[in-house]
Design a protein that fits this description.
single chain, about 90 residues, mainly alpha, flat
């Protein structure tokens, strides 16, 4: 099933996602690699040379993660305001 219309592609993707998760017995295990990858990303961002203690690296990585999601939230709010204004 292929489609060139973005709306139809979105519907196909949603269908595929629902089918995939309907078959999954352990959702947490299925997404563990992605969570580990994100944690590594933020750890690498704050301590690429691994000079900090694990506890300090974890604290800083958590702050970097919060900043990342706050930035996304701000962009989302700006996009909603722009849509409302137009």
């Amino acid at each position: 099933m292929t489609a060139s219309d973005p709306g139809q592609r979105r519907q196909i993707a949603k269908l595929a996602a629902h089918e995939r998760w309907a078959r999954e017995t352990d959702r947490s295990a299925a997404t563990q690699a992605a969570r580990d990858g994100m944690a590594r990303k933020f750890e690498n961002q704050v301590d690429p040379d691994r000079v900090l203690s694990p506890a300090e690296r974890a604290k800083r990585a958590e702050s970097a993660k919060r900043a990342h999601y706050q930035r996304i939230a701000m962009k989302s709010a700006a996009a909603r305001r722009a849509r409302t204004a137009s």
